[in-house]
């Protein structure tokens, strides 16, 4: 598949192979762009940004709506591509396509609400004859670096708001899953998007990503991925806007008055969706001592019924990890925890790129499973006696994206809402719940800024003040 550079679909002599993580079968190849390609893309984006900022709102809206319609018309094609190149089952992939359509439609609507406000300059003595307002202008050129776990919708979460705000955007998709991003770009081009406003450059991070991050003409970097890479981007970006979602080690608290059937159902889904390769993955379960045994029994029953296997099979619940190296990393981390005293209640076994759905208990506080993001289908469980103890344990990591609590008591719910250090608290749902319209992001090591269409729109624009002196 060709990459989109300055309005043209181009090839390069050097190629990157895109392989199915399930069986390493070759799906397609994409150009291996070099530094010069990225400089050319930024040159084109300068022209694209000048065009985009003058594009009327009704034109931006029409393009985004038509792009959404294009994706909808090819819903199954997009879903098959997500599932083939990535880690999602076909049922998971179909849900991602549906969300992508919603993200683009929300972006089209958000373009109508990019508003400013009047300012009462006469609040300051001596300014009685001054009148004015502020409005929002596009940042200019946005560089978007996207992950493998949601190769379509997380691209849409950057492209949609960027276009709605009148920016140009260059997408550097994950090397393992570039094909879905290229399909989305084609849907936007077919909707009438002018050249240079959106480009998708396929290549390796050290070769093209660094150029995108460091070039001063790129005024914002929007990144979703690992914390270590995020910290490197922060250092290299210097004086430009940065938005980052860097993952988490999400806690879910289950109180003694919880609806256990609901809590178990939501927690299992949150633990093993996309084989745990999900920033909202339920990694730490905190169970009240009075219900812990029953919860674990029910959790294990559902987990053991989980079907792993062929991603294209409609009956499959969970697919593989993105590659064998990722599966080996998860296996190594789990083995180290077991050697340190943890106990496997189910799973803890690798089969090629698959890692079986796993639940561990007695995990030491010093284990990476307790402190860091595992990014695999591994969940740990701990017991507590008071809500204060649960909150202390939940907050004892340098992450804070989302958390969940199951309780029927409104006072307990609000105690958690105000006590949990994170960007979102899901009451009677797992940490894995999200809609595309909500502000999405975290605190501490989980990132900077917020996504979610209306909120990304604010990040991708700058306020400009206008004041008239009528003296």
UniProtKB/TrEMBL annotation:
Location of the Aldehyde dehydrogenase domain: 9-466
Keyword DNA damage: no
Gene3D superfamilies: Aldehyde Dehydrogenase, Chain A, domain 1 (3.40.605.10), Aldehyde Dehydrogenase, Chain A, domain 2 (3.40.309.10)
GO MF annotations, alphabetized: lactaldehyde dehydrogenase (NAD+) activity
UniProt keyword list: Oxidoreductase
UniProt keyword annotation of Zinc present: no
Coiled-coil blocks: none
SUPFAM superfamilies the record matches: ALDH-like
Name by which UniProt lists this protein: Aldehyde dehydrogenase family protein
Species name: Ktedonosporobacter rubrisoli
């Amino acid at each position: 598949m060709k990459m989109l550079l300055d309005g043209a679909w181009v090839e390069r002599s050097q190629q990157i192979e895109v392989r199915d993580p399930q069986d390493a079968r070759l799906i397609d190849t994409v150009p291996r762009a070099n530094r010069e390609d990225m400089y050319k893309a930024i040159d084109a984006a300068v022209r694209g940004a000048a065009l985009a900022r003058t594009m009327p709102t009704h034109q931006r809206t029409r393009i985004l709506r038509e792009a959404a319609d294009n994706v909808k018309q090819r819903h199954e094609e997009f879903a098959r591509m997500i599932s083939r190149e990535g880690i999602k089952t076909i049922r998971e992939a179909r849900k991602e396509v549906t969300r992508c359509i919603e993200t683009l439609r929300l972006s089209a609507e958000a373009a109508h609400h990019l508003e400013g406000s009047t300012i009462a300059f006469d609040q300051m003595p001596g300014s009685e004859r001054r009148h004015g307002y502020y409005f929002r202008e596009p940042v200019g050129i946005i560089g978007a670096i996207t992950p493998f776990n949601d190769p379509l919708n997380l691209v849409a979460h950057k492209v949609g708001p960027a276009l709605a705000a009148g920016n140009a955007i260059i997408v550097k998709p994950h090397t393992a899953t570039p094909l879905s991003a290229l399909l989305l770009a084609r849907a936007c081009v077919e909707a009438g998007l002018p050249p240079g406003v959106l480009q998708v450059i396929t290549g390796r991070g050290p070769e093209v990503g660094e150029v995108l991050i460091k070039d001063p003409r790129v005024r914002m970097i929007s990144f979703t991925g690992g914390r270590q890479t995020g910290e490197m981007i922060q250092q290299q970006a210097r004086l430009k806007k940065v938005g980052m979602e860097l993952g988490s080690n999400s806690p879910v608290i289950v109180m003694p008055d919880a609806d256990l059937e609901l809590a178990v159902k939501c927690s299992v889904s949150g633990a093993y969706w996309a084989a745990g390769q999900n920033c909202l993955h339920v990694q730490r379960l905190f169970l009240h001592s009075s219900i812990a045994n029953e919860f674990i029994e029910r959790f294990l029953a559902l987990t053991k019924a989980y079907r792993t296997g062929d991603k294209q099979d409609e009956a499959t619940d969970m697919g593989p990890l993105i590659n064998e190296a990722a599966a080996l990393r998860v296996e190594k981390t789990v083995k180290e925890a077991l050697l340190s005293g943890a106990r496997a209640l189910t799973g803890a076994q690798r089969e090629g790129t698959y890692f079986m759905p796993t639940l561990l208990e007695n995990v030491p506080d010093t284990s990476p499973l307790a402190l860091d993001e595992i990014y695999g289908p591994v969940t740990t469980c701990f017991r507590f006696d008071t809500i204060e103890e649960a909150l202390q344990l939940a907050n004892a990591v340098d992450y804070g994206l989302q958390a969940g609590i199951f309780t029927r008591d409104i006072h307990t719910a609000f105690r958690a809402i105000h006590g949990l250090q994170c960007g979102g608290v899901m009451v009677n749902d797992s940490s894995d719940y999200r809609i595309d319209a909500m502000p999405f992001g975290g605190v501490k090591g989980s990132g900077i800024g917020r996504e979610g269409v209306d909120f990304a729109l604010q990040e991708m624009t700058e306020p400009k003040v206008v004041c008239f002196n009528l003296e």
